[in-house]
Amino acid sequence: MAFLRKHGALLTVGVLIALAFYGAGFRAGEKALSSVATGVENPDGGSEAQVDFAPFWKAWNIINEKYVPASTTKEAVDNQEKVWGAIAGLAASLNDPYTVFFPPVESEMFASDIRGNFEGVGMEVLAQDGAITVIAPLKNSPAFRAGILAGDRVIKIDGKETSGLTTEDAVQLIRGEKGTKVTLTIFRNGNKTPFDVSVIREVIDIPVINTKSLPGGVFVIELYSFSEQSPNLFRNALREFILSGDDKLLLDLRGNPGGYLEAAIDMASWFLPSSKVIVREDFGPGKTEKVYRSRGYDIFRDDLKFAILVDKGSASASEILAGALVEHGRAKLIGETTFGKGSVQELVDITSDTSLKVTVARWLTPNGLSISEKGIEPDFVVKYTVVDREAGKDPQMDKALEVLNQ
To answer: Residue 378 needs a FRET pair 20 to 30 A away by CA distance; which of 22, 45, 81, 394 works?
Structure first.
């Protein structure tokens, strides 16, 4: 999921249906924008590059002079809407699914999502490679209960083809009032034909954490999201682990699409000495990276038996936490390669009621691995198939227990 910033604070990311835009980080509220263009020929400030805007204005004038709607019932598009369309096209030209322009209606919807007003099916999706891909369904959400899996591709929404849709377009189609139904046509790797899944929308309660003890002294922490409450809940879970008398720790991050960066940093700090690098924020060539370091709680000995479960639904903050603990040798990673969501978006106000979400940086692991390019590769690769799930088996959990008990 990318991290979203607002007024310098890292917020949630991604794009959650019903949770819409939950998962990784974001900057927002940049009110003052320069009227001087950058990167183009500029009479006020020199030129960085030669860009000819004549074709744009020619197309604008031709449309204004010649365009006639094909239908007499179609409403006319005013000039302001054409400007919004032009900015949206500019953002789309970057071929970055996380860089998006929000006209007034979509901007207000996005703001509502950030405030936490969620009704929908409870899954995070992303438009990539011409399809709407499920990053992860939330634990016990309508999407989860309907059997939707990370990696599923949504090829139709209520019969509407999704090829060419943006993430935001898909979110608008899938979201809706609680109690209403949406039918998703799913293509799943390993299946020869697509199939329909009908999901009843609900108010989504975002799960955070669960703990349990397993035979053999294994204490399991299931972490479903990186919310504002996650650091305190995780600290309480670690206290519960210490008091349990168990001597092996298993952190389950499967299907966790991410959330607050601060939560990931705080959690990693329980296992790492002060100043150890947790994640690097890379702003591109010629710019100084920002390094986020451990706060040094470091309460466990180096011989702690510790394993982490991940899958292709583990994204953003999950990848940051897992990557840091694995690269510093504090845990073994088991499961499937993670999603690969490692970018940072900044939310900039274009006008009082429109905004631009633009990618401004990428996350690197302590050793410099780009999370977006490769995801995080497990030490032990173990598949968890639909057949396993239907049979009540969990080979990833079985492998983790084997590793911890060696």
So the answer is: 22
Paired tokens of 345: 């978006």
**What's the CA angle centered on 25, arms 254 and 103, to 5 degrees?**
115
Q: What is the pLDDT of residue 108?
A: 66
Mean pLDDT value across residues 90-114:
78
Q: Identify whether the C-beta of residue 28 lies closer than 8 Å to the C-beta of residue 345.
A: no
Whether this model's pTM surpasses 0.85: no
Q: Which amino acid is at 178?
A: K
- Distance (Å, whole) CA 182 – CA 192: 23
Residue with the two structure tokens 């198939």: 385
15-29, 119-133, 280-294 — most confident range: 280-294
Which residues carry out catalysis?
A: 316, 327, 341
Angle between helices 167-174 and 104-115 (to 10 degrees): 70
pLDDT at residue number 36:
45
Per CATH, is 209-342+361-405 categorized as 3.40.1280.10?
no
Alpha carbon distance 24, 3 (integer Å)? 4
The DSSP secondary-structure symbol of 379 reads S
Average pLDDT, the chain: 86
Instruction: For residue 181, give the H/E element and its range.
Output: strand 181-187
> What are the percentages of helix, strand and coil residues in the chain, rounded to 5?
25, 30, 45
What stretches of 40-177 show up as alpha helix (H) in DSSP?
54-66, 79-92, 104-115, 142-145, 167-174
pLDDT per position as a tens digit, 59-82? 999 999 999 888 887 788 899 999
Tokens encoding 105: 């209606």
Domain segments of the chain as ranges: 209-342+361-405
Q: Please give the DSSP secondary-structure letter assigned to residue 27.
A: E
Tell me what pLDDT residue 112 has.
Answer: 55
Predicted pLDDT at 89 = 94
